[in-house]
Amino acid sequence: MPQTFQELGVPLEFINLLKTRGITVPTPIQHATIKDAMDGNDLCGRAPTGSGKTIAFGIPIITNIQKADSKKPTGLILAPTRELAEQITTELKDIALLGKRSITAIYGGVSIRKHKMKLNKGVDILVACPGRLNDLLQQKALVLGNVSFVVVDEADRMADMGFLPEVEKIIKLTKRDRQTILFSATLDGAVSKLTRAFQTNPIRHEVGSQTPDMKLMEHYFWKVNRDNRIPAAANLILQTGKTIVFTRTRYGAERAAKQLKQSGIGAVSLHGGKTQNQRDRALQSFSDGQSLALVCTDVAARGIHIDNVDCVLHYDPPEDSKAYIHRSGRTARAGASGLVVCFVDKVQHKFVERIQRDLKINVPITEIQDTTAIDTTKQSNASIELRKNEHVSVHDRDNMTYDEDKKPYNRDKKSYDRDKKP
Question: Which of 172, 245, 259, 322 shows its CA 20 to 30 Å from the CA of 95?
Answer without folding.
Answer: 172
